[in-house]
Amino acid sequence: MALSIGVGVLDGFGLAMFLPLLQMVDSRSGGDVDSEQMGNLSFLIDGLESIGLSLNLQTVLLVMLLFFSLKGVMKFFEGLYKVILQQRFIRQIRFSNITLLSGYRYTDFVNSDSGKIQNTFSGEVDRVNQAYRAYFKTYQYGVMVMVYMVFALMANAQFALFVAVGGALTNFIFNIFYKKTKQLSKKYTSQSHSFQGLLIQMVANFKYLKASGLIYEYGRKLKNSITGIEVIQRRLGTLAAALTAIREPTVILVVVVVILVQVNLFGESLGLIILSLLFFYRALNFLMSVQNYWNSFLAVSGSLDNMTEFTEELARHQETPGEKKFGRFNHELQLNNLNFSYGSAHVLKGISLKIKRNETVALVGESGSGKTTLMNVLSGLLQVNTGAFMIDGEDIQSYDIRSFQQRIGYITQEPVIFNDTIFNNITFWDEPTEKNVARFHRALEMASIYDFVMGLPEKEQATLGNNGIMVSGGQKQRLSIARELYKEVDFLFMDEATSALDSETEKSIQENIDQLKGKYTIIIIAHRLSTVKDADRIIYLKNGVVENEGSFDMLKESSNRFKKMVEMNNL
What we know:
Structural class: alpha/beta
CATH class of the largest domain: Alpha Beta
Oligomer: single chain
Helix content: 55-70%
CATH superfamily of the largest domain: P-loop containing nucleotide triphosphate hydrolases
Number of domains: 2
């Protein structure tokens, strides 16, 4: 605000020096400069005379040059500071949203709109940036309007008041545009969320859509969404173009009417009117710019509303970590009468069990029995509704859950592979120091993927492609295991980690897992019982209840349902 006022004041002083120039070429005044003709701005001329400067052409021109030069310097610092503030603003939004998303509760994330998240983090941030620029341009130019209004009033108060009233009346015209622009902005944001959601699903399901021939039909759906966005953009553009087109004619209309009234009705001096007009023409141009920028702000205000709503939604659903840091797992995990529900669906019912350090435990049961939900509770993704989850005798809620999860290696049916090098995939972008490279090689060896990696032409610098397209399913799974082992974890959670693999690859990876027994606390979910045959303990779940538990052979003897599963697996 201070810099904007400084720019306006220096510009006003520079413009005020035009009147002495006009007086010098006015034959009626004999070329003499009369400070009284400048109204309340006469202090400029009086000031020059008081310091002994003669009011000739050279002096006036040099003073004018000085004012405009200082204005240029002030304008530079104003623009530079504006860029710094804008970058700080956008960085703060991006950083804040990333932090909030990182702390977003898993239960709320799975029910969220992925298209909205994607669009808000990408396109909406750019539109909020546009809103920022437009809003503060409106603010800045509003300050400039006030500065020039003050100058105009000092030069010729009556003329200034008339023009001000005329300028204010134009706002009634612009309000019609404003309302329509704001409505269209909200529609644009909603349509963009929808498009991003469709795009995410197309990328995620590309293989199926391509193989089934449905990709072109789905593509038409995307194209229709794009067309809808274009229609809204065109209507917003039409409104913006109309505002730009009527701006200057409106300014000139107001000025012409006021000059005619001043000269013909009030007999005002044209000299004073011209000086006031210089200021007011500036003021009115800035006023019209205020109106245009305000409309530009409204055009993206839907994104600003969405960003506010999105940030508040993330903030409402944050995890509440405990204060105690989790170090190393020493004794046992214990569940006491644990219950968990998704809304009204009671998924886990009165679960009580213990898992000892470095024990290998398998969770088995029919689909919908609660296996994945139980694993998600054990990994801290889901919070207990009732009952207790204890780690080494401490309630999990007393721990900072992030420090606990950093000790977990999580391997899923679909391995998580990033489009980067093998080294960055395994080390999660650690620096390639001597110590980290040694850890990297050790993790490859433990996951039985060392020979494969070292046999590649680029070795650890080989890129894996989108979702690991450059390697087989078994190799992807071994690489994902290597990443978890590189982390030096206490737990290995394997959720259907081998069910998508062929029998030979599954057997090979199972041998890897067997080699890790006794070194980690391993919790496995598997439909193929061959994967869990050698587990220390198998927990059989039925409708969210632990129906039986024991070794493979014990369960085969004591549980008819488990025995039936064994027979169906041809074991």
